[in-house]
Write a structure and sequence with these properties.
With about 170 residues, this protein is mainly β. It has one domain. Helices cover about 0% and strands about 30% of the residues. The protein has no helices and eight strands. The strands form two sheets. It has a five-stranded antiparallel beta sheet, with no helix packed on it. Strands 2-7-4 form a three-stranded antiparallel beta sheet, with no helix packed on it. A hairpin with a 2-residue loop joins strand 5 and strand 6.
């Protein structure tokens, strides 16, 4: 199964009501685009919506404290001239992080199974464990969002699938 690739990202974005990221690696038409968001806080700020310059339709796939994942299915390709905008429920002075991934091989409709998530926040010494959740369809993509204000590092324990490939990026939140 093809693996997702990083299409765009922003870390410690400005304290505005929206964060716009420019695509740095083009996406492919028909693929899913997954937008992961995180905040450097645990307040009740959420994502009000996600849009892009090609008009792809995004819906919330999963959320926990200060972290959300949004997905657009069967998309129009984004080029390096395009951008993705995350609109927050409110503006304020906290670190806003956005990761955009191009994800091939995902169903074009009804692709999101009910989420199984380990609710945060957890400390750096706490291992997050998801021990249940069976993919509804062979070849389903398990997408993990790890939000860390400590910046960087490589997750361990994701070796259950031969196609597992962590994409690690990190920035220390201030």
């Amino acid at each position: 199964m093809p693996v997702p690739h990083l299409a765009a990202s922003a870390f410690n974005a400005a304290s505005t009501a929206a964060t716009t990221v420019t695509v740095t690696s083009a996406t492919t038409a028909g693929n899913a685009i997954i937008v992961s968001t995180s905040l450097g806080l645990t307040a009740s700020v959420t994502v009000a919506g996600v849009t892009d310059t090609k008009g792809n339709s995004y819906s919330k796939a999963a959320s926990t404290t200060a972290t959300e994942a949004w997905v657009a299915l069967n998309t129009t390709a984004l080029t390096t001239s395009d951008s993705v905008t995350v609109t927050w429920s409110t503006s304020g002075s906290w670190a806003k992080n956005v990761i955009v991934a191009d994800s091939p091989g995902i169903a074009t409709v009804q692709a999101v199974d009910p989420a199984t998530a380990a609710a945060g926040p957890v400390t750096s010494s706490t291992a997050v464990s998801v021990t249940s959740g069976t993919p509804a369809v062979t070849g389903d993509l398990a997408y993990f969002v790890i939000n860390s204000g400590n910046g960087g590092g490589t997750p361990t324990g994701l070796a259950h699938s031969p196609s597992s490939r962590p994409v690690t990026t990190g920035q220390r939140s201030t």
